[in-house]
Amino acid sequence: MSIIKACIFDLDGVIVDTAVYHYKAWRLLANELGFDFSEQDNEKLKGVSRVRSLELILQWGGVTKTKAEQDELASKKNAWYVGMISHMTPAEILPGAKEFVETCRQAGLKIALGSASKNSGMILEKVGITYLFDAVIDGNKVSKAKPDPEVFLKGAQALHVAPAECVVFEDAIAGIEAAINGGMRSVGIGSPEVLGKANLVVSGLNEMSLEKLNAL
Ligand code: BG6
Ligand code: MG
Fold first, then answer.
1. Which atom of ligand 1 is closest in space to residue 172's alpha carbon?
2. CA-proximal residue: ligand 1, atom 4 (nearest)
3. What is the pTM of this model?
4. Which of 88, 104, 112, 114 is the most exposed place for a label (fewest CB within 10 A)?
5. Could you report the per-residue pLDDT of 136-158, keeping only the tens digit for each?
6. How far apart are alpha carbons 40 and 161 in whole angstroms?
């Protein structure tokens, strides 16, 4: 494997804990439709696009909607979600995340964001870390969802590095699979039972170091 030249970070669940807001907003929507879903079910929505998340939730509730109705429901959920994240502050950056990205930058590595979220730009602004990223590839720039590697390959391209020179940081299994499909190394953020396919699994970026990165 060639030397590591770039790190690509997922946003939700890696840099910030927005899963709780996604869950709250989707739950409000489900409740309005007359059903509820559990925190365990919510795990299945991590890393999954807005459209696909709604399809899964409607399936769980046994509810059928037309495409136009689904668009309206997804917009409604997003408006609630945007209302919630508009109050986010730098205090909501996950432990060690900002410090580790800064360490990587100081070591001369290029940094990209690779997220499915169409709200990435706003979240980075709210928590004050837009300046840390050389490139931001988010849900507005890709058409294929993880585990397709499109988001990470576009990240590598924007940073002018080869996929084999990149390490992806992801909390979703679909994201680890996307990294593998793109020919990249990966670090799972979460539990080894779920993210075992990654080259390394840590509980958070506070557990990462340049030594661990270079040993991948
Ligand atoms: C991912 C989240 O990062 O982004 C998913 O893990 C979310 O839960 C997806 O559905 C899309 O986000 P948004 O902000 O565009 O609805
Ligand atoms: Mg994530």
1. 6
2. 117
3. 0.94
4. 88
5. 999 999 999 899 999 999 999 99
6. 37
